[in-house]
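> forwarded from #structure-qc
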């Protein structure tokens, strides 16, 4: 009899790890060729080698991952259909594994988590809540039969990380399931799973990387943790992508570009499934460098290959901004117009891009506003001297700027000087940013300024002042990038 199971969700918190799948059935100490090919996105070779596996359960499991990878990285509708149509058969195959198989329940927990991510991206939230319960229950079954099994650590770590940072708007999920996460514990579990687990330790290492980078906001530490993995997988599109995301996170787009230049190596290899997000990041790197023609080319490539909503709004917005910053408002506004009636994805980058596109479509931005965006782009790319050069003429004529522009000016000064280690100057500018009028579009800059003052105070061992400003940052509501900041504040307060 066929068993029917609902599908399961994964929160946007785990979007940073959407490139990861798994092959926890492999028991060899060294990664098998199938595992290596999966992690290198040589999916055609995986498909060819599946027939060599004796177990139908293993074949179905890997077959699921072929479509899973493709859908999460390119969001092709055809792969979504295949994932859903084959789901019951795949689950039955895993149930058919030999009685007493020590990984059966872990595989089911892992499968429901991954299927859930797909459903969540497709905004089937209610189905997701129920199937997340299935994932959790299978994990508990495994722990009951095999207590203290290191192969449980990956799923335990994921649940702790997921529910330790779930945004306020999804708290109804935690209330429904009665699960409370612990970010710090979850990250420790993922790290330990990478070192001790026999269930694809490299996957646990990569999950630990993304959790450290995105949840703890420690990209430098995360990048360092990847160094020894590179010795094992010297030429992997997935690991290269991880490093690219890391370098972009620490404002080193030039280092990211060096890796991004390997595009032809992967794009021209027919055995590799090319990740469209590669072109999105390449477009961003050129955009920050003010190399707008190259940026437009890469964003166009991304929009052509990527069939889903993730980062699409942001890419279209940056295309419009590239023309706007080149002095062509008419062409730029044509891209903003494409977003006029569009809904953004749940990604914070897309939400902010949609807001700005509608705002700039309604009225051409002023010269100071455009200059501020030029400075922000240069800062985001790590070009700090150029970023400051844009701000200097604006700071010399503050009366010609609106309160919204002044808030942005002080925030950028704070971030640039903070990154350069000039903490007293950064501190003063953060205070000036916070002192500006409370405007909905500027509130994110003031809330983040409060958080960064807390960071400066904590590094100077002024725990009371740090606590005061972390809590102040949490008093702001209804602003862009709110979920990310709330997570960072909670982690910071926990350390105090």
């Amino acid at each position: 009899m066929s068993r029917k199971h609902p599908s399961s969700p994964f929160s946007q918190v785990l979007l940073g790890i959407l490139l990861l799948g798994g092959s926890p059935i492999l028991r060899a100490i060294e990664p098998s060729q199938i595992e290596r090919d999966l992690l290198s996105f040589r999916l055609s070779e995986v498909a060819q080698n599946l027939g060599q596996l004796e177990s139908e359960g293993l074949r179905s499991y890997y077959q699921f991952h072929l479509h899973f990878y493709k859908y999460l990285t390119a969001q092709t509708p055809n792969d979504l259909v295949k994932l859903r149509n084959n789901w019951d058969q795949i689950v039955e195959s895993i149930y058919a594994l030999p009685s007493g198989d020590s990984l059966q329940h872990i595989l089911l927990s892992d499968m429901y988590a991954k299927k859930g991510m797909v459903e969540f991206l497709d905004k089937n939230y209610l189905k997701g809540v129920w199937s997340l319960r299935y994932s959790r229950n299978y994990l508990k079954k495994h722990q009951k039969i095999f207590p203290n099994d290191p192969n449980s650590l990956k799923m335990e770590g994921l649940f702790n990380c997921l529910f330790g940072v779930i945004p306020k708007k999804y708290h109804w999920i935690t209330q429904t399931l009665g699960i409370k996460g612990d970010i710090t514990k979850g990250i420790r579990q993922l790290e330990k799973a990478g070192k001790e687990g026999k269930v694809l330790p490299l996957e646990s290492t990569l999950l630990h990387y993304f959790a450290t980078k995105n949840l703890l906001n420690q990209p430098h530490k995360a990048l360092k943790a990847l160094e020894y993995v590179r010795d094992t997988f010297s030429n992997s599109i997935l690991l290269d992508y991880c490093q690219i995301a890391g370098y972009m996170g620490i404002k080193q787009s030039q280092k990211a570009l060096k890796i991004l230049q390997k595009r032809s190596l992967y794009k021209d290899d027919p055995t590799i499934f090319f990740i469209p997000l590669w072109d999105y990041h390449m477009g961003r790197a050129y955009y920050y460098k003010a190399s707008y023609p190259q940026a437009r080319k890469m964003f166009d490539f991304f929009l052509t290959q990527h069939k889903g909503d993730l980062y699409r709004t942001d890419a279209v917005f940056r295309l419009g901004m590239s023309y706007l910053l080149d002095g062509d408002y008419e062409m730029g506004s044509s891209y903003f117009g494409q977003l006029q009636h569009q809904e953004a994805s749940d990604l914070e980058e897309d939400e902010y891009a949609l807001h700005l596109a509608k705002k700039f479509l309604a009225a051409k931005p002023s010269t100071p506003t455009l200059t501020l965006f030029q400075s922000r782009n240069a800062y985001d790319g790590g070009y700090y001297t150029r970023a400051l050069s844009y701000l200097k003429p604006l700071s010399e004529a503050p009366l010609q700027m609106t309160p919204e522009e002044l808030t942005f000016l002080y925030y950028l000064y704070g971030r640039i000087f903070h990154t350069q280690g000039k903490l007293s100057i950064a501190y003063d500018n953060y205070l000036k940013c916070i002192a500006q009028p409370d405007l909905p579009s500027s509130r994110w800059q003031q809330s983040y300024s409060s958080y960064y003052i807390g960071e400066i105070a904590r590094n100077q061992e002024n725990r009371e002042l740090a606590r005061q400003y972390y809590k102040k940052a949490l008093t702001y509501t209804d602003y862009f990038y709110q979920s990310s900041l709330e997570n960072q504040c909670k982690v910071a307060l926990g350390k105090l």
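QC bot note: The chain has a mean pLDDT of 87. The two ends are 55 Å apart (CA to CA).
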